[in-house]
Amino acid sequence: MTDSLAAEGLRCVLGGRDVLDEVRLQVRPGEVLALIGPNGAGKTTLLRALARLLRPLGGAVSLEGQDIWRLRPRPVARRLALAPQGADLWPLTVEQFVGLGRAPHRGWLMPLGPDDHAAVRAAMGRTGLESMRERQVTELSGGEQRRAILARALAQEPRVLLLDEPTAALDLKYQAAILAMARRLAHEDGLAVVVTLHDLNQAAGVADRLALLAHGRVQAVGAPDEVLTAELISATYEVPVAVCRHPLDGTPLITPLRGE
Amino acid sequence: MISRLRLRPLVWAPALLIGLAVAATLSLGVGAVWLSPEQVARALLEPHSPDARATAVTIVWDLRLARVLLAAVVGAGLAGSGAAFQGMFRTPLADPFVIGASGGAALGATLAIIGRIGGVGVPVAAFIGAMGAVMLVYGITMASGASSATSLLLAGASLSTVLSAIVSLLMLMSDRDLHEIFSWLLGGLSGRSWPALTMSGPPLLAGLIALWLLSRPLDVLTGGEETARSLGLPLNAARAAIVAAASLTTAAAVAAGGLIGFIGLAAPHIARLFCGSSHARLIPASALVGALLLVLADSAARTVLAPVELPVGVLTALLGGPFFLWMLSSGGSR
């Protein structure tokens, strides 16, 4: 099976500093890959490079087997969507804002058609925004804005979905809902989902595989059990941790150890 | 407090068109000779019927109609390109002149006046100056590789400063043309008639329609450059197309009316109050609001100090400024 998205020998430099170095990573259809790592490890940079927003100095990114930089931006945007962490918002209504996700499909001059409106409605439905469709995105709460950004990415109907810290600024209910949705999109609809997360326990719960980044390099890739070990996490985050088990599904749970 | 009054296009579009028709009818009646709306309507609709007074027909058709239409078209053009630049640069402060069109137009017109190129020379020179300045700003920005919207704005501001310094210098050195240059700079439609309309109208309307067609790229650009790229927008091509269409519109408007300020800044803000910020609606709504405002302002310019005519640019600034401040302070601008 072709990887949905693969990075090979990826090297990115920002402001004269190596932010990513020799990064090698694959994500397959139907899989949730979580990127974890301390602040400044290069998670967001990696996501931008994977989304064709940052041209790497070395190495390559391939989307479904094709070099992403040999593809035009619009065909990429039909297959791959990024929900960024924050966005500059302009006072469009939620429906208009989510509708921007249809631009890669509809072209720049054609009005939206019935299937576009259906996709927009479905995306608003999945993110719980139906009741807010006429409200302006600038007047929504932070969490509602995050959901609108996510809905815009869903409206692109991508096969590869990149989520940058999708649970930040969300309350507990929507944290759980967004993570459950990411799993459903992968396991039921066959999308490849790449998600950066600060919360290691959320990462353990949502991901099929984890990639641990530090200092621009991939330190470990594998199932949650293989990556979330006390030794690896303590060394990478420079804080002593203990690993126990989730009482229901047995995934690893990380607890920082107090003291010293 | 201005509350946002979101209306459907089926409500605001006819309302603005009716408002524009009423304003135009009134505007056709005011001036040195006053005509009642009924006389105007009769002269317009039945110019050959025996009931229509010959003088009224002459005044309406030969003297005022072209000017009123020109006011509407110029107002629409300034407002439409203002809306586009505000969206593209993601700032409510942008106006049609934000990347150098006014400085270029002023220099072109000044040179034409000093060089005694009469007739259509001044508007043509203003048009060439406006397009030339914008192309220079765009070319410099692209060549430097700093292709962000911010660098385009900064280059526009720098070039405008240089050009207006040159215009000031030229004015200082040519006393005898001072009055004519100055009154051109203030902006006005005095004495404009059918030739101005047939010259400026087509390119202006073409640019305006192009901007309307570009409304989805404009919507996408309001999300910022990174979002626009991640939605697959070819950033440089989209910007070039928007700059070209908006500048064509602005240059044609400036060629016809000189430097009329404020309409291009304020009309989009007024339009946003009832139609929202999506450009497919905002561009036509701004154009209609701009047309209405300039038709009204031009009527006022002809009458408040009659028989002396005020430059309409002075009037739009005098009346528009305080109105805009009031609108901002009541929190209705976004």
Task: Report what the structure shows.
The complex is a heterodimer of chains A (260) and B (334). By secondary structure, chain A is of the alpha/beta class. Chain A has helices at 43-50, 73-79, 94-99, 103-106, 114-126, 142-155, 172-187, 200-206, 224-227, 230-237; strands spanning 5-14, 17-27, 32-36, 58-63, 66-67, 80-83, 160-164, 192-196, 209-214, 217-222, 241-245, 252-256. In chain A, 33% of the residues lie in helices and 27% in strands. The mean pLDDT of chain A is 92. By secondary structure, chain B is an all-alpha fold. Chain B has a single domain, classed as ABC transporter involved in vitamin B12 uptake, BtuC (Orthogonal Bundle), CATH 1.10.3470. In chain B, 74% of the residues lie in helices and 0% in strands. Chain B is globular, with a radius of gyration of 20 Å. The model of chain B has no long low-confidence stretch (mean pLDDT 88). At the A-B interface, helix 2 and helix 4 of A face helix 9 and helix 10 of B.
Outline of this structure?
The complex is a heterodimer of chains A (260) and B (334). Chain A has 260 residues and is an alpha/beta fold.
What is the topology?
The complex is a heterodimer of chains A (260) and B (334).
Chain A lengths: L4 E10 L2 E11 L4 E5 L6 H8 L7 E6 L2 E2 L5 H7 E4 L10 H6 L3 H4 L7 H13 L15 H14 L4 E5 L7 H16 L4 E5 L3 H7 L2 E6 L2 E6 L1 H4 L2 H8 L3 E5 L6 E5 L4
Parallel strand pairs in A: 3-8, 3-9, 6-7, 7-8
Antiparallel strand pairs in A: 1-2, 1-4, 4-5, 9-10, 11-12
Chain B lengths: L8 H21 L7 H9 L8 H35 L12 H14 L6 H23 L5 H25 L4 H9 L7 H20 L1 H7 L3 H6 L4 H23 L5 H13 L3 H25 L8 H18 L5
Helix pairs in contact in B: 1-2, 1-3, 1-13, 2-3, 3-8, 3-11, 3-12, 3-13, 4-5, 4-6, 4-7, 5-6, 5-11, 8-11, 8-13, 12-13
How many discrete domains of chain B?
1
Judged by helices, strands and strand pairing, the structural class of chain B is mainly alpha
Distance between the termini of chain B: 13 Å
Number of domains of chain A: 2
Order of helices and strands of chain B: HHHHHHHHHHHHHH
Q: On the 0-100 scale, what is the average pLDDT of chain A?
A: 92
Instruction: Please tell me what the overall shape of chain A is.
Output: globular
Q: What structural class do helix, strand and pairing data of chain A support?
A: alpha/beta
The helix fraction of chain A, in percent, is 25-40%
Multimeric state? heterodimer
CATH architectural arrangement of the largest domain in chain A: 3-Layer(aba) Sandwich
CATH topology of chain B: ABC transporter involved in vitamin B12 uptake, BtuC
Figure out the total of helices of chain A.
Answer: 10
Helix content of chain B: over 70%
Distance between the termini of chain A: 49 Å
Strand/helix succession of chain A? EEEHEEHEHHHHEHEHEEHHEE
Annotation, overall tally of beta strands of chain A: 12
